[in-house]
């Protein structure tokens, strides 16, 4: 159909142009809505199998966290015999796509994280994001969390513990120990899966922290989680 023929049809059939434009616009809106819904479905799919590398239906790209700057490792190679040895692992994220897997030392099906050589060690994983506008999620499956038990009242973790800082928790639970603004602390086991939104900003310089502490006594499996963009 040439341009002149099309113009003649438009003049001959009142309202045809309006209907045609409306149909095109409607199809465009519907297409955008479908794409948006697919993104939501894909996001939901991520968290339904977010730690199952063996699930053949999972198409989520999962990679290990980059190594820390300056070769710092956890547990610390040199430990103080008079108190808790603390180290900070600076981990920059430059590619804000897909998911990154976090694991405490020696995490595995039949493994246990190392005891401290003396009193205790405390590792702060300081994960730095490319910019403060990103809002990635951090997820923990209850099946991938096992630390030494807290006190009998369930209000403190005097021995081994796990802390997340600069996050917003999706729903508080009985697992939360000593909750405070934008931070949570856990030990023992979890009663349910956890989902958090990372909220870096001006005051924390585009970063959030994962803190893991272990003493020289009881060992457990540790913690595995997923940071997704």
Can you walk through the features of this model?
There is one protein chain. The protein is α+β, with helices and mostly antiparallel strands and 229 residues long. Helix content is 19%, strand content 32%. It has two domains: 3-48; 62-228, Sandwich (Jelly Rolls), CATH 2.60.120. It is built from two helices and twelve strands, in the order ααββββββββββββ. The protein has a six-stranded mixed β-sheet with strand order 1-3-12-5-10-7, with no helix packed on it. β8 and β9 form a beta hairpin. The longest helix is centred in the N-terminal third of the chain and has 33 residues, at 16-48. It starts with a helix and ends with a strand.
């Amino acid at each position: 159909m040439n341009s002149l023929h099309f113009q003649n049809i438009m003049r001959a059939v009142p309202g045809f142009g309006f209907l045609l434009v409306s149909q095109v616009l409607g199809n465009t809106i519907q297409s955008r809505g479908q794409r948006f819904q697919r993104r939501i479905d894909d996001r939901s799919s991520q968290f339904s199998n977010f730690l199952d590398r063996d699930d053949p239906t999972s198409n989520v790209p999962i990679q290990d966290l980059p190594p820390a700057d300056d070769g710092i490792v956890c547990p610390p190679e040199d430990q103080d015999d008079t108190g808790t040895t603390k180290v900070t692992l600076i981990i920059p994220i430059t590619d804000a796509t897909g998911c990154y897997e976090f694991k405490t030392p020696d995490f595995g099906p039949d493994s246990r994280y190392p005891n401290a050589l003396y009193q205790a060690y405390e590792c702060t994983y300081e994960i730095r994001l490319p910019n403060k506008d990103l809002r990635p999620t951090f997820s923990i499956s209850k099946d991938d969390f096992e630390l030494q038990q807290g006190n009998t009242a369930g209000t403190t973790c005097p021995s081994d513990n796990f802390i997340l800082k600069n996050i917003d928790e999706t729903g508080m639970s009985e697992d939360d120990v000593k909750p405070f603004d934008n931070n949570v602390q856990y030990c023992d086991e979890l009663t349910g899966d956890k989902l958090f939104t990372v909220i870096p900003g001006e005051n924390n310089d585009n970063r959030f922290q994962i803190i893991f502490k272990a003493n020289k006594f009881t060992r457990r499996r540790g913690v595995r989680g997923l940071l997704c963009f």
